[in-house]
Amino acid sequence: MTESRRPARRTGGTRRPRPAPVPTGGDPAREVARDVLTAVRARDAYANLVLPGLLRERKISGRDAALATELAYGTCRAQGLLDAVLEDCTDRPLADVDGALLDVLRLGAYQLLRTRIGAHAAVSTSVDLARATLGQARAGFVNAVLRKVGRQDEAAWVAQLAPDDELGRLALTHAHPRWIAEAFRDALGADAGELEEVLRADDTRPAVHLVARPGEISAEELAAVTGGDAGPWSPYAVHLTDGGDPGQLDAVREGLAGVQDEGSQLVARAVSLAPLDGPDGLRWLDLCAGPGGKAALLGALAGIEGGRLDAVEPSEHRAGLVRRTAKDLPVDVHVADGRDPGLEPGYDRILVDAPCTGLGALRRRPEARWRRQPAGVAELVVLQGELLASALRLVRPGGVVVYATCSPHRDETTGVVAAAVAAGAVQLDARPLVPGVPQLGDGPHVQLWPHRHGTDAMFLAAFRG
Ligand SMILES: C[S@@+](CC[C@H](N)C(=O)[O-])C[C@H]1O[C@@H](n2cnc3c(N)ncnc32)[C@H](O)[C@@H]1O
Q1: Could you tell me the superkingdom of the organism this chain comes from (predicted)?
Q2: Interval between CA 354 and ligand 1 midpoint (Å)
């Protein structure tokens, strides 16, 4: 046996990590997409963090990068729908199908049902992928299953597999877990007729939004240097439409701009616009700051006025991200629990951008909808209420607290707000804090929606100190 073939020695009984599938070199875009799916499934990785690294590492750009991105994100997003179809086409429960095989099947089914890639190419490239890393027998299985998948189109599969009720049908059609579709319907309330539009918007890959850092570059200049378009609502927003990795843009690398959904920009701006009773002492606080997107915008706005921002984040790692994002800004980062951060009360403006389910940003996190569980909501609601109560203790009389979530789930939004009001908090009308934005409903809170505003589904409510 040659040195290179000798099996590695097992140490201390610990299992060696499985080697990553070796790229075969024939189909780099699909190999990357498959490897993203594997990382998401096997390591609970985030697709949008794994993909750019793999593209860089394997020096994939241009059309191959665009295809890999479409296939990886699209397959993650559509997973529930793809699995329902695959389940119907296999002779065993999907739970019994080996994970690596399932990744290839999902990728193939996505191409068959949701892309313009021809059926022959979708099947044969999947068979090749399976053969290269999983062997001939499994390649045969992939071939048989995908041929069944390709017998009819997506609409016909939905018609065959959808539950009888409207909510279940919409959830399957637009690839959402039922409980999330239900949460959106409840949040829409009287406008529940818009549910299909929300789900459709959420099932579409969104444009990347950039924030032009105030004092560094204007949105017009940023749009000119990036080839993007100025956003409709935030004076700092630029929308990129041509895909690509925004981290490679000079303006982002040089810290003149960051990647931030326009809805998040509106939340940070709302904090800075809220009227105070009495002069602004320019002592501002971001109570849940990591990874620092809003802290950077708030810090820049405070700095222009000569003020400072305290940024609280309990996770050391995420506090480090805040430091990096808000570098060179008047931002002091505190690694602390926002429920009792040990800071001197008397803040003029406080943002509570509470930890939440993130159901409002699913379009930007392709795999998240299949990972979230309804059981997680109740625990978050308790923490959200405690953080809001803490902010209301830290704000000065006449100051303002803005409570925000990137979730429209009523328990996390109006539920938390109602409990605070019942405990004596004074709620303000938040609608004037997002000037120029239409369709904000009856207030006093603001709920943004992807289908109405092109933003993530951010919620915000304002309180007087
Ligand atoms: C929705 S994220 C905030 C996003 C951030 N404002 C931004 O724009 O980049 C919520 C943050 O709250 C943090 N968090 C969790 N528990 C917390 C606590 N007890 N006190 C303060 N922050 C907490 C999480 O670690 C997470 O970084």
Answers
A1: Bacteria
A2: 6
